[in-house]
Write a structure and sequence with these properties.
The chain is an alpha/beta fold. It folds into five domains: 66 residues, DNA polymerase, domain 1 (Orthogonal Bundle); 86 residues, OB fold (Dihydrolipoamide Acetyltransferase, E2P), CATH 2.40.50; 87 residues, no CATH class; 202 residues, P-loop containing nucleotide triphosphate hydrolases (Rossmann fold, 3-Layer(aba) Sandwich); 153 residues, 3-Layer(aba) Sandwich (Rossmann fold), CATH 3.40.50.300. Helix content is 39%, strand content 19%. Strand 3 and strand 4 form a beta hairpin. Helix 8 crosses helix 23 and helix 10 runs parallel beside helix 11. The two termini are 39 Å apart.
Length: 671
């Protein structure tokens, strides 16, 4: 059976499926629901909590009323149950008044809000039957009901379409349901417990394949390029720096130097909090590499960060007689040709760039060291692609990955099992902890007054917004463009306000960041484009609008843009207080914040194993679940790899892991 054979699928709907990346029945089944509407049980009004979703069995109280406001309309009606009263309203659905007035009892499903001390539902759905309904990612040209119908048809032969991908022994030992059963649970659940079983099955499999792929990468370190590094070379490097390094920086560079001098290729992660001095350590490693006669490549996730590294490292390198260069995806053809020539000839001993470094046209003369900055932005596939630029005669270049998103050590050992880990657990002397405050909307004017005081004292400030332009669907969120204009004409009319965001033209963005760094702007209104790679010691205030829209790790990164000078710095979180924001305001320790973040949302988002094209597993929509499951999958991979009696099972898993790696390598985006 093919997609085109399904009832309800004609030429246009088939094209719609193809446009969504669904080309086979297997793809269709592996495109699991994004979420679920659980109407399997009704709640009482009195027990309903604000901000949560419930189903209610209600009695209409009085007539439904229709109000009109120009071209807009609002239908409102009050309902009761044995425990209390709730109001429901529907916007731009005038027909609901007549529908409601025909019935006495109704079952409504929606999110509870509180207005004027009274509970209400806004645009709730009317439920005919109790149950659990899958919610799929919208596909333009394919009605949701049709989507459900064709999935039901495909499920009739799920065993043939999606044969078991895990060894039977693994499934049994870890209490997993079969792949086919998991897909039935995810598409047609009879309870949320079945949904959890299906998610657990594929979460375990995703992590198991990831760990197996990691173990495969680890084999690459068998042979490297041993570099001649003297006993005092690391100390000599620090003597040339314009500051005193911390003992953690000294220790980490010594560990790196020992690895680079060995016969096995280094594969090491340097973890450290925001501002701990990882870049200086990386520069030390690249300097040692150049002195040994090899090239090094530093790959950053954004052009802004790549340029910042280049500008900050170039002057030091020139004084040491080391030539460095920059390779970016946005270069002109002439600039790119020039860069490729200098890389291929070996004239550039240090090359800094973005994903452009791993494009096919880049050829290194003698690549001995690869560095990826902001490790959480790159996966195993990108690291492998960069390493492959230097693989020769079964030898591989040394690899150093840097992460400014602290990860608890136990999790790091599981997630990055192919890496040795160094932790820079000290900040440079003189750094004052950033004071963090949660600021409610009622105190906004007071916050503006504090901002003006800081600016009058000669300091600078960032204001981060979640949007660039205003949006009809998120009209309450601050948007950078209109907000910057409003501030310039009102609260900050006497000050110089700049604006930057991700889609801004590159030259305009670079000029704005340069002007702010040079003190030519007092306030920089921005999106999260400034999350990494922006270093302005004179900035003492970070204001994050709609702070509850961000993850803890990202908030910590943004906060790290201030506190880089010797003055007291502040971070204001503009939002209603919640558990995440309170955790951030209590601590400046990135590792403690990471632990809290993991407890609140689980490890799934950290793993970053996306699949495209022919599906290997139900992708990104499946949560990774508990930490315990993560460790269980890691232990399983280790057991399979090291137990001769499980060789057949390991062969099956490692083959799937290899296919996963091939898929990821094909899907690397070249800037």
């Amino acid at each position: 059976m093919e997609l085109s054979n399904l009832r309800g699928i004609g030429k246009n709907r088939l094209q719609a499926l193809h446009a969504a990346g669904i080309f086979s029945l297997r793809d269709l089944l592996y495109a699991v629901p994004l979420k679920y509407r659980d109407t399997s049980a009704c709640a009482e009004i009195a027990q309903a909590l604000e901000g949560e979703r419930f189903t209610f069995d209600l009695v209409r109280e009085g007539e439904a009323k229709l109000s009109r406001y120009g071209q807009r309309s609002r239908v409102s009606c009050t309902f009761t149950d044995d425990s209390g009263r709730i109001t429901a309203c529907w916007f731009n659905q005038p027909w609901m008044r007549e529908n409601l007035n025909k019935i006495a009892r109704i079952r409504l499903h929606g999110v509870v809000s509180v207005h004027g001390g009274k509970k209400q539902l806004v645009n709730p759905t009317v439920e005919k039957e109790l149950g659990i309904s899958p919610v799929y990612r919208p596909i333009e040209g394919l009605p949701h009901k049709t989507h459900e119908d064709i999935v039901a048809q495909a499920l009739t032969c799920v065993e043939q379409l999606c044969p078991e991908t895990l060894p039977v022994g693994v499934v049994e030992r870890h209490g997993l349901c079969s792949g086919a059963e998991a897909l039935r649970f995810l598409h047609k659940p009879t309870s949320m417990e079945e949904v959890e079983q299906g998610q657990r099955r594929f979460a375990f499999e995703q992590m198991l394949l990831y760990q197996s792929a990691v173990l495969g990468v680890k084999e690459m370190r068998r042979q490297g390029y041993p570099m001649i590094i003297g006993d005092g070379d690391t100390a000599l490097f620090w003597q040339k720096m314009p500051f005193q390094p911390t003992s953690a920086q000294r220790r980490t560079l010594r560990e790196i130097a020992a690895d680079m001098a060995g016969t096995s290729a280094m594969v090491r992660m340097v973890q450290g909090d925001v501002g701990c001095g990882k870049t200086a350590v990386a520069l030390g490693a690249m300097t040692l590499c150049a002195q040994a006669g090899y090239q090094s490549a530093l790959m950053a996730p954004t052009e802004i960060l790549a340029r910042q590294h280049y500008e900050s490292l170039r002057s030091f390198c020139e004084k040491q007689g080391i030539h460095c260069g920059l390779l970016l995806g946005g270069m002109t053809a002439k600039e790119r040709r020039n860069a490729l020539e200098h890389i291929a000839s070996g004239e550039w001993q240090i090359v800094i760039g973005t994903h452009a470094l791993i494009s096919e046209t880049v050829v290194f003369a003698r690549l001995g060291l690869c560095i990826t900055d902001e490790q959480h932005r790159f996966g195993v596939a990108q690291r492998t692609a960069l390493i492959n630029k230097g693989v020769s005669d079964s030898r591989a270049p040394h690899l150093l990955v840097m992460s400014a998103t602290p990860i608890p050590r136990t999790l790091a050992l599981v997630m990055f099992g192919d890496l040795d880990i160094s932790i820079i657990d000290e900040l440079p002397p003189g750094r004052k902890p950033v004071t963090t405050r949660i600021v409610s909307e009622e105190k906004r004017q007071g916050m503006y007054g504090f901002l003006r005081n800081e600016l009058d004292a000669g300091r600078q400030a960032y204001i981060v917004c979640p949007l660039v332009e205003e949006s009809e669907t998120t009209d309450k969120l601050k948007a950078a463009k209109p907000y910057a204009a409003t501030l310039q004409s009102t609260e900050l009319e006497k000050y110089r306000v700049g604006l930057t965001y991700g889609a801004q033209p590159a030259k305009e963005k670079q000029e704005t960041l340069r002007a702010f760094a040079a003190g030519e702007l007092d306030v920089l209104v921005a999106t999260t484009v400034i999350e990494v790679g922006v270093n302005v010691p004179n900035a003492s205030l970070m204001i994050i609008e709609d702070a509850d829209r961000y993850g803890l790790a990202q908030l910590h990164q943004l906060r790290g843009r201030v506190g880089r000078g010797d003055q007291q710095s502040w971070c204001f979180l503009m939002a209603k207080a919640n558990e995440r924001l309170r955790a951030l305001s209590r601590s400046n320790d990135g590792f403690e914040i990471a632990r809290t973040d993991l407890e609140l949302r689980g490890p799934g988002e950290l793993l970053g194993t996306r699949q495209h094209g022919e599906a290997l597993l139900p992708g990104g929509t499946v949560a990774f679940g508990s930490m315990q499951l993560l460790y269980e999958a890691a232990e399983c991979a280790q057991q399979l790899a090291s137990s001769p009696e499980l060789a057949d099972e390991w062969a099956m898993v490692s083959a799937s892991a290899g296919k996963l790696m091939d898929t990821l390598n094909r899907d690397i985006s070249i800037s």
